[in-house]
Amino acid sequence: MINQNLDIFDLRKIQINKTKAELENNGKRQQKVVSSDMLGTFTPVDRDPVKIIQITEANMIPELLPLRHQRMIASRFSFFRGTAELMEHDLKRQAQSNLPIIICGDAHVNNFGFYASPERKLLFGLNDFDEARIGNWESDLKRLLVSAELAGEENGFDRNDLYHLLQLTTKTYRHTIKSANKMSLSQLFYFSFAYEDMGKAIESFGDISTQMQTVLNKVLKKSQRSNSEEIIQKMATINNQGHLVFRDNPPRARHLSAVRYQQIVKGYNKYRENVRQDVRVLLANFHISDIIRYSVGVGSFGTRCYLIMLTGNDNSHIVLQVKEAMPLRYNLLSLPVQQVIRNGGIAGQRIVTAQRVLQSSSDRFLGSTTFGGRSYYIRQFRDMKESINVNKLDFESFQFYCQTCAYLLAMAHFQSPTAPMIRGYLKHQKILDTLLPNWALRYVDQVTADYGQFKLAIAKGKLIN
How many CA atoms lie within 13 A of 277 on its CB side? Predict the structure, then answer.
């Protein structure tokens, strides 16, 4: 089988010259090498979570680390979201299927959301690809299951109900892989899951229609208002020179030195030269009005992230997000430093490629660039982008949400040419509907222990507070 210890995002690893039937048979053979029992057995890990977190944060902006830690300490789920490197480390110590596909790398329940297609259609799917790589399908599914348990416990749901939810989520993934394997390549390529599709799916569940439909209606209304002009209204002001600029709100939002400003301008110009031709023509109508450093998220909070305000010749605006593409945390803890640096130089390209493959339709403005010795990717900021607050869902709606995430994760995985191997591996493996939830519960215990050590390190001053 193909070696999974890949140090770069090499698409040649998933371009295997075999028929679908041959790939399925490869998956069946791999099931005999790495059984479902092995995949569902948790192997205890022995490492210092605080040291691993420190390695990751060594490349981040020190001024932002206290706020980052405040976000992470809020709950076990918040901590889990901010420490993908810990699970990356631990998954390498577990049995792995060794079936190479493009994976999200961080498929927790809060990394799914709504976004706009180029035709302005509201779609739902994966929306974070910073850790995307060639990897194992079960890594994404295990992270989804652990996040569902943590978020569900945070909501106060019954543990037995949550266990059944994890089983249904695994079953949904498994059945979707079976269905996707029957689709033609063109059907898979053009697959999308729109707001309307989610509404239709809800109707078949009866009792949860009212609660979930109310949530979706709020999302639809918010997404229609979410655009660059709204961002300008909320985040911009007129300065002493009479120019429209972003508001400072340090340390989260802060204007830049003249040197860094010019670096970003050069990076933007490089991006504009390589972006889609139709976008390049559109951007010719706009000039840069302002740039600010603006931090977002939990796991990404502390990385270098900027907003560019573009003003058009008709005085309209576009706000672009320039987000640092970090070297894979999957590699950060195991590869030589120089190899990590080399990989980091093309991280923006890796993220853009993965997003275009795993999302059914991507932002037209999506592209990558480099400046100041670092790699970045660029996209529209908050353009029709919305998410469902899982903390606001009742249990039945939360279960539907998790099953929807599993469905879309499987469909994303099946964009890889090697995906029929997953179907071969999963065939007649209903036992995984129990084994993987059991693994997830064991790992929740590990997250709980790590979270305790993190809080202790904060209290003792080992981490910036």
Answer: 0
